[in-house]
Model the fold of this input.
Amino acid sequence: MELADKSGIPPTTIKLLGKEYRIRSEMDPEHLQRVAEYVDRVLREVRASTPDTQDAAILTALNIASELMSTRGLTAVPSERIQALIDLVDSA
Done:
């Protein structure tokens, strides 16, 4: 068992695209695992059409941010803008 750092928060290990990350967060570890599973699922979906991991991560962040903004009733990023960003990343 690993000891917590100076913050007193023990690490939680999550997996994204098969890679393990050790996260120290005040978030409940079970909730953190659910968040990681969701991000991993969306990342894998995006990566199916964009094999570059960095591009997939950026597009995943845009997709999740758009979902969050819609959920909060904020002005969501127009789908045309998201598509333009996807096209820009694909052409890089």
Remarks:
- Helices lie at 29-47, 53-71, 79-91.
- The two ends are 44 Å apart (CA to CA).
